[in-house]
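Objective 1b. Sequence-to-structure analysis of Endoglucanase.
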Amino acid sequence: MGMRLRFSSISLMLLLFVLGVVLIVQVVSNDVKHNYADALSKSILFFEGQRSGRLPSSQRMKWRKDSALHDGNDIGMDLSGGYYDAGDNVKFNFPMAFTTTILSWSIIEFGKSMGSDYVHATEAVKWATDYLLKSTSIQNKVVVQVGDPWDDHNCWQRPEDMDTKRTAFAVTDKNPGSEVAGEIAAALASSSIVFKKFDPAYSQNLLQRAIQVFTFADKYRGFFNDSLGKWVCPFYCDWSGYQDELIWAAAWLYKATNQQTYWNYVVKNIPLLNDKYSGKIGEFGWDDKHAGIHVLIANDLLSKNSSGNNALAADIVVCTILPESPTKSSGIKYSPGGLLFKDMGSNMQNPTALSFLLLTYSRYLIRANKVVQCGDKTVSPQRLIEFAKGQVDYILGNNPMKMSYMVGFGNKYPKRIHHRGSSLPSIDQHPKHLGCHDGSPYFKSSKPNMNELTGAVVGGPLKDDTYPDIRSEFAQSEPTTYINAPLVGLLAYFNSPC
C-alpha cells in the first residue's frame, strides 16, 4: 500500500512537471507568434508619415501636415509631392524610385494577401509615381533631387517649417545620370503593372513614361556622381555603376510590355555585370540591383526551362546569403541572435531586401518544382521561406533585446528615433514656426519622440544584438522608406501564406 502511494506521488510529480513544461513551451510559443496583419498595416501606414506636398483628406497620420508646396519653383516645375527618404527633409529620387519599384513588386507578388491594406499599398505607390511623373515631364531631363542636403542636414526642423534651400537638381543629355534615370524607369514600369487592371489609363501613362525615361538613360550614359558631385555624395552616391539599373529597368519593361526587345536587352547585357566574380551577386538595395535582377528574371528562365548560366544565377544568390551555405559570401555575417548583417549603415535594409528576394524566389522554385544546390547542401523552397520568416520575426521581437524594431508594434520598440518630424512637436501642439536650430533641444533630449511614426522600421541593432535607443545614433535609430518597402511584401505573405 505504501509503495503504491509512493509510486502515485512520483507519478503525480512527473505529471505536474510535464504539464509545467508544456505550459512553459506554450508561453514561449505564444511569445514568438506575431500579428502579421497588424505589422503589415503599420508598415504601410509609415509611408504616410514620409509624405511631402499637400496631404489628402484621407491622411491617417494626422500629426503630419502640408510641406514643401513650392518645390520646383526654382526651375519652373511643379515638384510637390513624393517622399522624404528617411529622417531628413530632402527628396532623393534614387532611393525613392527604388522604394517605389519594391512596393510595386510586393503588390504584384503578394497583393492578394494584403486584404484591406491592398488599397493603402497602391496609394503608397501612387504618391510616389505622381511625383515621378512630374520629375520626368520634360524630355531628356530627369529631376533627381529636391532640397540642398548640406543645408538640410545642418538643421533639425519640421518639414512643415522648412526654410532651407529647396534647390531642384536634374540630369540631362549633357549631364547624364543613367543609374537614377534607370531606377525611375523601373519604378514607372513596375507600377504600371500594379494599376493595369483598375486604372488602365494611368497605367498606360506610367508605361509610356517608363519607356521614354529608359531610352534617355540608355542613350545618354553617365554617372550622376560626375554630373552632380557633392549634391548627391556622400548621401546617395552611385557605387555600383549604372549597368545594373539599365538591365533592371529593361527587365521590368519586359514584365510590363512582354516585348521581346527588352528581353533581348537583358540577355545581351547581363554578362556585363560580371557579378559572379566581382562579389556583387548577393547585393540588393537602392544602389545595387544585381541580386534583384537575377531573381526577377528567374521566373521567366524557369518557365522557359532554360539551363543556361543565367538560370543558375538566382541559385548563386541563395547560396551567397544562407548561413549554412558552404559558399556564403564573406561579406554577409549574422549576429548571435540571427540577424543578417553587412558592413554598412542602416543595416536593416539588408535583411528586409534579401529576405524579400529569397521569399519571392521560393515561389518561383515551387512553381517549377525545383530546389537549389549549394555545394553539398540541398536547399528547398521551404528553407527559403523559413529563412525569410526568421528575419521578419527577429525584426518584430524574436531577438535578444525582446523588442520590436518597428515603431508602434508590440510592447517594446524604439522611442527616440532619428526623425525630425517625429521628434519635434506637431503643428497642432506648437503652431509657431520652428527655425533651423530651434529643434536642437529636442534632438539632444533623452525624452521619447513626441509623435509616433507608426510602422517605421529603424536601422536596427548593433552586431552584438544590442540597441542604443539614442537619436544621435542615426545608423541604428533612423528609419528609411527602403527598409520598409520589401517588408511590406514579406508581411503580406506571412499574414496569409499562399
